[in-house]
Amino acid sequence: MKKSIILGLTVSFALSGSIANAAMSGSKHDFSGQTWASGQICLPCHAPHNNVNTTGTLLWNHAASSASYTFYSSPTMKATTPVAMSSISKTCLGCHDGTVAVDSFGGVTGSITISATNNLGTAFGNDHPISVDYTTALAASKGHMYNPSVALSGIVGSAGTIDADMLYAGKNRMQLLP
Question: Within 13 Å of residue 177, how many CA atoms lie on the same side as its CB?
């Protein structure tokens, strides 16, 4: 099964307050209609404001994946193969690797797993580089990659660069987009 992989995270991760709520409303990640979500749009992923979850992470409410991952490798890949999944990718994979139930949040272990079509699994060895540094130097060395600090992201309504719009907190990481 071909996995759906691109740079960055959804713009909704960068939004806040009612704008983020509006961006989530009706999306694939809006679980407010599920009985296990108690009618809340944010609660399955985010802890109520100013609270810390059971792992000590501020505002994150969902159980994390503890899976081991197989990373992409190729003789033509110039990026350094990571030794561990980046934390932001693991945040998405908490649901999308199929090892944690989508209703596992707030300290409760759930039982509803993600559908097979949205389950990315844990083996990325034959698909795409994940959690590697995506820098200007890497883009220049490959020749066919866009310079993340200059190239526009292409996100509708944004005039931002790949780095500004799609990479997490300037960390220059390639990430999953579920």
Answer: 14
Q: Give the closest residue to 85 by CA, choosing from 76, 94, 74.
A: 94
Residue 72: pLDDT band (50, 70, 90) is: confident
For residue 20, what are its two tokens? 């983020």
Residues 40-66 pLDDT 10s = 888 888 877 656 555 555 577 888 888
Q: In whole angstroms, give the CA distance from residue 154 to residue 9.
A: 13
141, 83 Cβ separation under 8 angstroms: no
Q: How many CB atoms lie within 10 A of CB 54?
A: 11
Contact 15, 165 (CB under 8 A): no
CA distance 39 to 126: 39
- pLDDT category at 111 given cuts 50, 70, 90 is very high
For the chain, give percent helix, strand, coil, nearest 5: 25, 10, 70
The reported pTM is 0.63
Q: Which residues on adjacent β-strands are paired with residue 46?
A: 60
Half-sphere exposure of 1 (CA within 13 A, CB side): 10
